Automatic annotation (TrEMBL):
InterPro entries: PPR_At4g14850-like_plant, PPR_rpt, TPR-like_helical_dom_sf. Transmembrane segments: none annotated. Keywords: Repeat. PROSITE patterns: PPR. Pfam families: PPR_2 (PF13041). This is Pentatricopeptide repeat-containing protein. One of its GO terms (molecular function) is RNA binding. One of its GO terms (biological process) is RNA modification. PPR repeats lie at residues 107-141. It comes from Solanum tuberosum (Potato).
Length: 171
């Protein structure tokens, strides 16, 4: 019964975030805590999404601290944290998560989050550096990777790199 209870809470909180009612979702999680409802990894991902959407640095950092204090790790956690820090323009923290010990086996999603975060924050050179590192680590770029790196080409005015990426995408 306890499991169904948290699923119900998470469903409502997630629906609020999906409907761009992020502040309401955060308030509902606060109510969950007041009622001693256990927060799980699903709740955490929803919290990180809400914090990202409203670019709330404090809630994002508090959620990250909660993860660390409770030694919570789950698949995709690094990507959620990278996106949250990137959207909050907390570049140092974003990079620290990307380079941290628990991201030793970075997947496409993690690489894409880092490239997109750099691009969104105008760190064009860094986007290209991360893309190059991704290739050097033999991680194959996908459509999301290309969609994340292409804006860097236009922002840098580098038609040559844009053409190379276009050729890469066609192959």
């Amino acid at each position: 019964m306890k499991e169904r209870y948290i699923v119900s809470w998470n469903t409502v909180v997630s629906a609020l975030v999906q409907n761009e009612l992020d502040n309401e979702a955060l308030m509902l999680v606060y109510e969950m805590k007041k009622l001693w409802v256990a927060i799980d990894d699903i709740t955490i991902t929803i919290l990180l999404s809400a914090a990202s959407n409203i670019r709330d640095r404090e809630i994002g950092k508090q959620t990250h601290a909660y993860l660390l204090r409770h030694n919570i790790q789950f698949e995709g956690m690094e990507s959620y944290l990278i996106v949250m820090y990137a959207k909050s323009n907390m570049i140092r923290e974003e990079r620290a998560i990307f380079q941290s010990n628990f991201t030793y086996d970075k997947d496409q999603v993690t690489w894409n989050a880092m490239i997109a975060g750099n691009t969104q924050n105008g760190l064009i050179e860094q986007s290209f550096v991360v893309f190059k590192e991704m290739l050097e680590q033999n991680v194959k770029p996908n459509a999301v990777t290309l969609a994340s790196i292409l804006p860097s080409c236009s922002q840098s005015g580098s038609i040559a790199i844009g053409k190379q990426l276009h050729c890469f995408a066609i192959r």
